[in-house]
Design a protein that fits this description.
With 287 residues, the protein is α+β, with helices and mostly antiparallel strands. It has helices at 13-17, 35-41, 96-103, 153-158, 168-180, 184-188; strands spanning 45-53, 58-63, 68-72, 80-86, 89-93, 112-114, 122-129, 142-145, 195-203, 210-213, 222-227, 231-237, 257-264. The chain binds zinc ion.
């Protein structure tokens, strides 16, 4: 937050503030996915598995590398909080912050979900998004953000709320604990900042605070991903429902979400390979 300043502006304040912004991470040199191949591959998909996420709860799912998965809204408007891990090594996980630095605050078709250091590779590529028409609204809001972290009982507690056990953080923790047969304290260290699927968010124009508003998602909408590596995912149907009013409580109307996993049949992916982890040496200048 920026409170009223305690210091006088210097004489050259205007010149300093007029310095032109520079994009931190221009993506001209970023290896880009071959969307033509993915478009062709998704023309012949067969459904091989599906998982329903109950309201205010989460479930894990697995997607083999080279398969597609869709998160869809089968009923009322509902926001989902997504975690992704390398199915063979859950220390490699989705890196929301770097994905944001590379692709901006909200993602859509053609953007990739990157993994944490030292792996730093695309875990998934977004191949279709039925909400791509939304763009930006007059409040500066958009859908599918990589700004938020996930609702959690700790923040709720520090803000003066009661202990609430069905925040996305807890839902994801329970789902991962039962899938991986890990105890809760250990599991919690693997739960990470999310992709907020279908959530409509932004920063207020005046105070630049994180806001949410009713999601534009409707029955039948979906966002689709191509799994670049073997994925273990977990999705929570947020207790905030469409996140138009509140979260971290039982107040909002909540609905299920669906995960559908598809295999591409045909020859489109015969020359496709999983991306390798970062080729950085890892020496950090020592030795
Ligand atoms: Zn949530």
């Amino acid at each position: 937050m920026k409170y009223p300043p305690q210091n006088k502006a210097p004489k050259d304040a205007k010149a300093r503030k007029d310095a032109q912004p520079v994009i931190c991470y221009p993506i001209d040199t970023l290896p880009r996915p071959d969307m033509g191949t993915y478009t062709k591959a998704r023309e012949n998909l067969i459904l091989i598995d599906q998982v329903q996420i109950p309201p205010r709860d989460a479930r894990c799912f697995k997607v083999p590398a080279g398969h597609f998965f869709r998160i869809s809204c089968p009923d009322g408007p509902q926001v989902g909080d997504l975690n992704l891990w390398n199915a063979n090594n859950i220390s490699e996980r989705f890196f929301s912050g770097k994905t944001r630095a590379l692709h901006g605050t909200h993602v859509s078709t053609g953007d990739q979900l990157w993994s944490n250091l030292p792996y730093m590779r695309p875990m998934a590529t977004i191949t279709h998004d039925t909400l791509d028409w939304y763009g930006w609204d007059d409040f500066g809001g958009s859908v599918h953000d990589v700004i938020g972290t996930r609702c959690d009982p700790y923040t709720n507690n520090v803000l003066g709320g009661n202990d609430y056990h069905y925040c996305c953080h807890s839902n994801l923790t329970r789902a991962l604990a039962s899938t991986q047969k890990l105890d809760l304290p250990k599991t919690e260290t693997f739960v990470h900042d999310v992709l907020n699927v279908f959530m409509c968010t932004g920063f207020t124009h005046d105070t630049h605070q994180y806001f949410m508003k009713a999601s534009p998602v409707r029955q039948g909408d979906y966002i689709e991903f191509f799994a670049e590596i073997d994925l273990l995912g977990a999705l929570s149907a947020c207790p905030g429902g469409d996140c138009g009013s509140s979260h971290s409580s039982e107040d909002a109307a909540c609905f299920p979400l669906n995960i559908e996993i598809y295999k591409s049949v045909g020859q489109s992916l015969v020359n496709w390979n999983s991306p390798a982890p970062s080729s950085y040496s890892g020496s950090h200048g020592m030795g």
